[in-house]
Write a structure and sequence with these properties.
By secondary structure, this protein is mainly alpha-helical. 65% of the residues lie in helices and 5% in strands. The mean pLDDT is 92.
């Protein structure tokens, strides 16, 4: 070849393909998110979700929480379920659709935070995929909870807090941050405490920008005042509807007695440490390893530590709230786990970039580590293997399962301890056959989902019997229950066996046994009702004909 030859023109040069390894990582992350979302959409109701749906159904039909349909959770979760039911219809899928929409929005929020603090949106995507997987592993019982939606609102508030707004829009920014935390407060009051952390962050940032402490103080006060707006608006709604006294008794008198049960023989420091240990290490080994890697491997971006400290501040407020409740139920961590997973995503991405230096072997080592770490722990263990349950749901979704209907899938999966959705459906079917649509029923037990499933109205505001079974404040609840039953005598009363919850009621009685401690109800059953049928843990008492004939 002559020495003065020139290379061929670019348009005839062979193309060299190169694949960005990060693109493969992104593909894996989106796949995990999609599969996790599919699992959530197939979750049925547990007991708590049935309570929220029953109260929400009352709201849709013009009734008020606490006064007309009673539970002792804060009002935010009832409004979420009412929104889901109003938009998507009265199905178990409705709140799950809202939950998945929020989960996907949270992933995009993490991508934005990943770019802000770590210079890489993919870091946020890795954290989002980890958060979605952990959330799906919480299963049907511990998802769709107040903490679930409160955590999504918290992520949204952090995104707004850290966005670089022009000066003329910062009042709007502060108001938005406060309002989001105010709504989170209505889900669970401790979640509103994140407003303090973000207000301090914004005050410090504003002071640095403007050089005046007064400007920072203005940011802090603005966030605080804005956080009160949703709370005041909710209180005004209850006051205008005449439901404020019922709310005040429930949340300020009854609920503290329930909370106090968890503090027996425990100290605040021990409980906080236990909550911190559980949050970081109980639910996911992969997340725990990722957090350790995030701290151990040197920072890759100038704002990395700033972002981590902001998250840790909010996490500490969450854990303090969990400790205050004293129960340490898995769903109590549902707002905190995504923030920890986001930090875990940072550490996992750092490991991924270092493994890439080892070529194909390093990539295989990384994914082998992820698989092993993922299998070490799952978020909830009392339901059996999450992977077996996920396989069954995925097979059903793809039409590859022998379970050809949703009812068969529910019968296989949605039962735990004394709760059995299929059993509840059987009781609801029996109720529909025995009770006319315009008649009422009453459930003496802990399964308010029977009202929702049977589509029969409750004859009392007390849709389950915890208020009448606890040792504190039960006299008022019993008196009000009997007044309700006299005003609207139920056509049928359902009595439940086996629902023992000492951490809720403070004793070892189930509902059937607790009747002996409630003479008025016991007399009503003996004199005006007769037992007609038993279905598993439920006894059905129909109103005697002579009693019905005495009604005005």
């Amino acid at each position: 070849m002559p020495s003065n030859s020139v290379p061929p023109p670019a348009d005839v040069m062979p193309n060299e393909s190169s694949i960005d390894p990060d693109a493969w990582l992104s593909g894996v992350c989106w796949t995990v998110i999609a599969l996790s979302a599919a699992q959530i959409l197939l979750f049925a109701f547990g007991r708590d979700q049935s309570i929220y749906a029953t109260v929400a159904d009352g709201i849709v039909h013009g009734r008020m929480p606490y006064r007309d349909v009673w539970d002792f959770k804060p009002p935010g979760i009832f409004l979420v379920y009412a929104l889901a039911q109003g938009v998507f219809g009265k199905t178990m899928l409705a709140p799950r659709l809202l939950e998945v929409i929020g989960l996907v929005a949270m992933v995009f929020g993490f991508r934005k935070l990943g770019h802000t603090f770590f210079g890489q949106k993919r870091i946020g995507l890795v954290g989002g995929a980890l958060a979605a997987l952990i959330h799906a592993q919480l299963e049907f019982w511990h998802t769709g909870q107040p903490e679930t939606f409160g955590g999504m609102l918290t992520v949204a508030a952090i995104v707004v807090t850290t966005h670089d707004f022009a000066r003329r829009y910062r009042f709007l920014q502060w108001a938005c941050v406060g309002a989001l935390f105010g709504i989170a407060f209505l889900m669970k009051p401790p979640l509103g405490g994140g407003a303090i952390v973000c207000a301090v962050y914004l005050a410090r940032l504003e002071t640095q920008r403007d050089g005046r402490v007064s400007r920072g103080l203005l940011a802090f006060v603005s966030v605080g005042l804005a956080s009160l707006l949703p709370i005041v608006a909710c209180g005004a709604w209850f006051y205008a509807k005449g439901a404020w006294p019922a709310l005040a008794w429930t949340l300020f008198e009854f609920t503290p007695g329930y909370t106090q049960l968890g503090w027996t023989g425990r100290g605040a420091a021990d409980m906080f440490y236990w909550g911190l240990e559980e949050a970081f290490f109980r639910f996911s080994a992969l997340s725990a390893f990722g957090v350790i890697a995030a701290f151990v491997i040197r920072p890759t971006h100038s704002r990395e530590r700033e972002g981590i400290f902001l998250l840790l501040g909010i996490i500490s407020v969450h854990v303090a709230g969990i400790a205050m409740q004293g129960k340490f139920f898995q769903y109590h961590y549902a707002a905190t786990l995504p923030l920890i997973a986001f930090m875990g995503g940072l550490g996992l991405y750092k490991l991924w970039r270092r493994c890439l230096a080892g070529g194909a072997g390093g990539v295989l080592a990384f994914f082998a580590f992820v698989v092993v770490a993922t299998s070490m722990r799952i978020a909830v263990r009392d339901l059996g293997s999450f992977w077996d349950r996920a396989t069954l749901r995925t097979s059903y979704l793809l039409g590859l399962s022998s379970l050809h209907s949703r009812e068969l899938l529910d019968r296989e999966l949605y039962k735990v301890a004394d709760y059995d959705l299929d059993e509840n459906r059987a009781v609801a079917t029996e109720i529909r056959q025995r009770v006319p649509e315009d008649a009422s029923i009453y459930v003496w037990g802990f399964e308010p989902g029977l009202y929702w499933l049977a589509e029969r109205r409750a004859s009392s505001r007390y849709i389950y019997d915890v208020a009448q079974r606890v040792r504190w404040d039960r006299e008022r609840a019993r008196r009000e229950l009997m007044e309700d039953l006299r005003k609207d005598p139920p056509q049928l009363i359902v009595v439940q066996h086996g629902d023992r919850f000492s951490w809720v009621t403070g004793d070892e009685y189930d509902s059937a046994e607790a009747i002996a401690t409630f003479p008025e109800l016991e007399s009503l059953l003996q004199n005006q009702y007769q037992k007609t049928k038993s279905i598993e843990d439920f006894d059905l008492y129909e109103r005697a004909a002579e009693s019905a004939s005495q009604d005005p």
